[in-house]
Amino acid sequence: MNLRYLWRVFVKVAISVVFGGFFYFFWLAAFLLVDIPDSSVLKFFFWILTPIITALGFAAGIVIYERIASKYRSKLLNIFIWPLIGCSIGAGVVYWFGPMLIVFGMFVAGTVSITLREVVLSSKTHNN
Question: What's the Cα-to-Cα distance from 122 to each of 7, 8, 23, 25, 82, rounded to whole Å?
Answer without folding.
Answer: 13, 12, 27, 31, 15
